[in-house]
Amino acid sequence: MGTLEIELYSDRNIVQREIISSLLIDFARHHAKSQVSFDAVAAPPIAANWSLSAFEQPDHFILLSKIDGAIMGCVGLRPYENTIYENTCEMVFLFVKPAFRGFGFGHQLLESFLHLAREKNYSHVLFDPIQSHEAIRQLYLGFGFEEIPPIGHSQTEAKTWLLHTL
């Protein structure tokens, strides 16, 4: 494998936009068999475009992971308003293409996400996990996330969310 690069997505880059749309469609299809109940499963292309449009706001970010210039994963950061944890952001659609899993790229993408959240002066990260897969849960717990009851509306049927205090 080549060298991993992680960079911020720019909505001005049409090629990146198309590739991220494709990644989000893959993400929705990959999770269609899990307990996901949001529109991305029913209409992946529409949901991918909606998701990207939401991230064109100045306080929303997408990190891209690339191998030799080819995008192979992404993760989104957006503010999350709630009455329990102040100054909170949400991690959304952390995804690495299946062919690139098992090489530590997800770990590096998660590390970069936490660095960006600190850089943007957030105090907490919330994550509504789509899957209850034990290996994935252990990954997040290993990064210092803790399980908490769901906060507000959940797009999944997750029994617990994950919280990371920065």
Backbone shape: globular
Structural class: alpha+beta
Which CATH-level-2 architecture?
3-Layer(aba) Sandwich
Spell out the helices and strands N to C.
Answer: EHHHEEEHEHEE
How do the strands of the widest beta sheet line up side by side? Answer: 1-2-3-4-5-7-6
Number of domains: 1
Mean pLDDT, as a whole number? 77
Full CATH superfamily name: Gcn5-related N-acetyltransferase (GNAT)
What fraction, in percent, of the residue positions are helical?
25-40%
Task: Give your account of this protein's structure.
This protein has a single domain, classed as Aminopeptidase, CATH 3.40.630. 34% of the residues lie in helices and 26% in strands. It contains 5 helices and 7 strands. A 7-stranded mixed β-sheet has the order 1-2-3-4-5-7-6, with helices on both faces. The protein is globular. The termini are far apart. Mean pLDDT is 77; it is low at 33-50.
Topology:
Elements: E1 4-8, H1 14-30, H2 39-42, H3 44-54, E2 61-67, E3 70-79, E4 88-96, H4 105-119, E5 124-127, H5 134-142, E6 146-148, E7 161-165
Parallel strand pairs: 4-5
Antiparallel strand pairs: 1-2, 2-3, 3-4, 5-7, 6-7
